[in-house]
Amino acid sequence: MRGATHAGRAVCAVVVALAATACGGGGDSAGAGGAVFSSSWTDPQNPLEPANTNEVQGGKVLSMIFRGLKQYDPKTGAAEDMLAEKIETPDSRTYTITLKDGWTFSNGEKVTARSFVDAWNYGASLKNNQKNAYFFSYIEGYDQVHPEQGEQRADTLSGLKVVDDRTFTVRLSQKFSGFPDTLGYNAFVPLPRAFYDDHAGWLAKPVGNGPYTVESYTKGSEMRLTKWDTYPGPDAAQNGGVTLKVYTDNNTAYTDLMAGNLDLVDDVPAQQLKNVRGDLGDRYLSTPAGIIQTLAFPHYDREWNTAGSVKVRKGLSRAIDREQITDTIFDKTRTPATDWTSPVLGKDGGYKAGLCGEWCRYDAAAAKKLIKEGGGLPGGQVKITYNADTGSHKLWVDAVCNSINNALDNDRACVGNPIGTFADFRSKSTTQKLSGPFRAGWQMDYPLTQNFLQPLYYTNASSNDGKFSSKEFDRLVDEANAETDPAKAVRMFQKAEEVVRDNMASIPLWYQNGSAGWSQRLSNVALNPFSVPVYHEIKVG
Amino acid sequence: MGQYVVRRLLQMVPVFIGATLLIFLMVHVMGDPIAGLCGDRQCDPATATRLRQEFGLDMPVWQQYLTYMGNVFTGDFGTAFNGQEVTELMSTAFPVTLRLTIVAILFEIVVGVTLGVLTGLRRGRPVDTGVLLLTLVVISVPTFVTGLLLQLLLGVEWGWIRPSVSPAAPFGELLLPGLVLATVSLAYVTRLTRTSIAENRRSDYVRTAVAKGLPRHRVVTRHLLRNSLIPVVTFLGADIGFLMGGAIVTERIFNIHGVGFQLYQGILRQNTQTVVGFVTVLVLVFLLCNLVVDLLYAVLDPRIRYA
């Protein structure tokens, strides 16, 4: 039994090791304080720096712990002054920004002009790898701080100047009348000194100037936010705090809501849409969000850049039965698109229902005729490329293809072309490797028409993956940006949008709704135009 | 014995290198991960270049692999895209999954072996047929069905348990997920034990033991069971590896933030560092489990000796 004893010892060692590691992990404690509620969350993709957070989950936290110069009204989406007392400009190019008195960070530090200027310089600086750096690209000196190639030549933006504690000036590299309205975006929030002095510590427990403070943050599991009792702003939290719980699957979050373990779900899974009214009754909400889904085209591809291809694109647009797809697949949580912006902008903000006109209306006969006139589908077939890993894209791409196939009486006219992961899909579409139409979703950064047009269709713009280019569109956008009268600017943007329509640069599909479901404990739940719950207004009990 | 263990440990080296290289290449083939970091817009080229440099993605693959392995041997598993060290992710994920695995394995051993012995000793009786039928049902129903069904019944309809597991994931909350995770293997363990017991019951040494006048429980536990457990132990050893790495479905259903969650997220975000790191550890777990199983043979059956 010599071998046996040795083996026995080996087993013991393993068992001890197992037992030891099994001891890890702390106990769970229920949240104290009556008015705290829980909400579903997903692990943010990037570190929680304001200029580095470009998705909703990280943005959720930032919107609770930070307040910027402007704040978007949850209902109308209009940018209203928050920290800014006034923002003045004589020429739409040089802005003088004055701060309100009395604002502090939750650690007691005063919010000064320097808090903003330093934060913006940090966000723009190439060496900090901030993914939202381009937000500062309108400011003079950006090309020195963040050159497209090579090392950065300056540490700070030359266009930013601190005048005194409560005043600073911003000089832009071109006229941009909408600039003040962009300042409600998370990338523009002020940062306390602690952010730079103890960066790792700040990331572990962010400190801001918003109505909530971070009590504890366990990465990948949960974040506990409590109401900041001495919050100096006008929009103090109506509840004691929020516990954000990370869910890997939104179905589980929904089940937890049904079982009473979770108070708020802000992403009702598509599979549950049919039951949600029965399950939750009037504790369910679905409102338009600033998201539009389109089919983008590879304008860099010769076959999609011919004289006739405009007609082919228009024909495809008319072959898609948007009503039927949004009804059957999305249960009316999406609305057929009739322009290239979003209803959340409102009429004054630039949304114009029906701007697309007949080109977005389903008509099989007209579709057939248009495509024939345009010289037929390139290669006899269109392949719609999408990523198969998230967002149930397969469902609607297949439905769109079915619709096209039926309209054209051709079973092989359209097929879906799934790509395994989002990253791979993005890498292929941003490097112009796709040869057919592809899925393009756009979530607005700030509620301006400009944000729905310029980044997507301006020559060589940051999200113009299809490389659409039109001199007339570029000219109209430049003029609109320089226009100081907002109403006039909106009209110019709409003219530019008409250029997009006449070229059918992309096919608008539908506007997306944000959705939320909540428990009986909560009331006054609303979603803002960015489909993030307005946490501070929620009442508990 | 000592020599044998050393030989086995040395054999692990090429297996380890091969497995990690394969995973590394597979993740690499999926394409450029940086493009997915900027959402539905293009990362600006300057930042993308810097990120690629920072994560070493601008080097040729072989060089990336060598650097990575070099770092791994010094205990540095790299950094995930959200700025967390992979070792930090491991230190939170592995204990949770390990607890889940322990629960599942205990279910398999206690319930599986007991049922196996019971049915093996009563072959052809109603108990045997009943259990056999039950195992058949369990094997043919996929895990996610049992998981979602039990979650809905116990968690929502009857309210006996919480449908999801809290971040701390104590043993108590892992009972149901552990059972769900164990069901299929449990059925196999039952069947393996049953066959093995039924076979060995007629062997000479059992007859001898009975003829010696040993009490029945002693015959069953000391003589019959010990010899019959060899195939079961082999199965369980391999199963530990499977349970640790393959719990993705169960972990998703019950919102357990373990290895499956990290792997799934790592694959979606094409995070080479996370995926390769976790798989590397899983490969090690597999190899060690196999070694332990082989050593256990000698404990169970003294006729097996390693030289």
Automatic annotation (TrEMBL), chain A:
Q: Name one GO cellular component term.
A: ATP-binding cassette (ABC) transporter complex
Pfam families in the record, alphabetically? SBP_bac_5
List the InterPro entries. Peptide/Ni-bd, SBP_5, SBP_5_dom
Note the Gene3D superfamilies from the entry. Answer: Dipeptide-binding Protein, Domain 1, Dipeptide-binding Protein, Domain 3, Periplasmic binding protein-like II
Q: Name one GO biological process term.
A: peptide transport
Q: Which UniProt keywords apply?
A: Signal
One term of GO molecular function: peptide transmembrane transporter activity
Q: Where is the Solute-binding protein family domain?
A: 82-463
The signal peptide stretch is 1-22
Q: What is this protein called?
A: Peptide ABC transporter substrate-binding protein
Automatic annotation (TrEMBL), chain B:
**Where found?**
Cell membrane
UniProt cross-references to InterPro entries, sorted A to Z: BPD_transp_1_N, MetI-like, MetI-like_sf
Residue limits of the ABC transmembrane type-1 domain? 94-297
Q: Name one GO biological process term.
A: transmembrane transport
Its main subcellular localisation, reduced to a broad class, is membrane
Alphabetical list of CDD domains matching this protein: TM_PBP2
Superkingdom to which the source organism belongs: Bacteria
Annotated Gene3D superfamilies: MetI-like
Topology in the lipid bilayer: Multi-pass membrane protein
Q: Sorted alphabetically, which keywords does the UniProt record give?
A: Cell membrane, Membrane, Transmembrane, Transmembrane helix, Transport
Q: Which GO terms describe its cellular component?
A: plasma membrane
Q: Where are the transmembrane segments?
A: 12-31, 96-118, 130-154, 174-193, 232-254, 274-300
User: What protein family does this chain belong to?
Assistant: Belongs to the binding-protein-dependent transport system permease family.
What the entry lists under PANTHER family is as follows: DIPEPTIDE TRANSPORT SYSTEM PERMEASE PROTEIN DPPB-RELATED, DIPEPTIDE-TRANSPORT INTEGRAL MEMBRANE PROTEIN ABC TRANSPORTER DPPB-RELATED
Protein's UniProt name? ABC transporter permease
Q: Give the source species.
A: Streptomyces caeruleatus
